[in-house]
Design brief:
Blueprint lengths: L5 H18 L1 H20 L3 H31 L5 H32 L1
Helix pairs in contact: 2-3, 3-4
């Protein structure tokens, strides 16, 4: 396996973000929710710990969505016919995104309760 430099790694990562944005509706929805959270944090100017928590949650949700998309594409490519183990793996990956998304909403609501 060939080693790639930092510039190549960055180019591949940006290509992955572009691909996810163009082909994954859920990723676009998550980005919209993230933008709303960022605007709200900038508007309310909560204590730094809340801003950091919101930022971490945004990163975790988007990263989970990217991993979910990568897993779905990989499984569909390697095993295009329906299989129970593929369904379970995809459902579990989607559940991970859901858990993080719900957790991020809870953190956001707690921030609002503390700040308002």
């Amino acid at each position: 396996m060939k080693s790639h430099g930092l510039a190549d790694g960055l180019r591949y990562a940006l290509a992955g973000l572009r691909q996810a944005y163009s082909s994954e509706r859920n990723f676009r929805v998550q980005l919209l929710a993230a933008a709303f959270a960022v605007v709200t944090v900038l508007w309310l100017q909560p204590p730094l710990i809340w801003a950091a928590l919101i930022g971490v949650m945004i990163g975790l949700v988007l990263a989970a969505e990217l991993v979910n998309s990568a897993l779905e594409r990989t499984l569909d490519g390697l095993h295009p016919e329906r299989a129970e183990f593929v369904r379970i793996a995809k459902d579990c990956a989607a559940a991970a995104v859901l858990v993080l998304s719900v957790t991020s909403v809870v953190v956001f609501v707690l921030m609002l309760a503390d700040v308002l």
